[in-house]
Amino acid sequence: MSVWRQAGLNYINYSQIAARLLRQALKAEFRVEAAKRDESSIKFTQWKDGKAIRKEN
Q1: Which residues, other chains included, contact 52 with Cβ-Cβ below 8 Å and sequence gap of 6+?
Q2: Is the pLDDT of residue 56 over 70?
Q3: Which of 4, 15, 24, 36 has the fewest CB atoms found within 10 Å of its own CB?
């Protein structure tokens, strides 16, 4: 069994922690560029009868 699994983490949590630590270890000149890749976003789409439901604001 993997060490991260024994620690109670799933792979996503493990990879996020590893990426954050790697970015912190970079030299300042490379850290700024790597920090831009640290942000992420998620978009949820509801589906009904095989078609995406458009949500009106």
Answers
A1: 45, 46
A2: no
A3: 36
